[in-house]
Amino acid sequence: MELIMIKKKGCMPCKEFEPFAEKRAKEETLSFKTIMGEDMPEKFNLHISLSFIL
Prior knowledge:
- This protein is of the alpha+beta class.
- The protein has one domain (2-39).
- It contains one helix and two strands; from the N terminus they run βαβ.
- The chain has one helix at residues 12-27; strands spanning 2-7, 31-36.
- Helix 1 links the parallel strand 1 (2-7) and strand 2.
């Protein structure tokens, strides 16, 4: 399984949360990667902010 974090350019909470998410993924033996929201195709781009607690 894989934990994917969708970030937005200039998002300070994303920058602060990324190290925690990466550490948590390693603890749960998941691979981790980030994707920039601006690079996603329009049909997959979420126009709302989602928050998940790990």
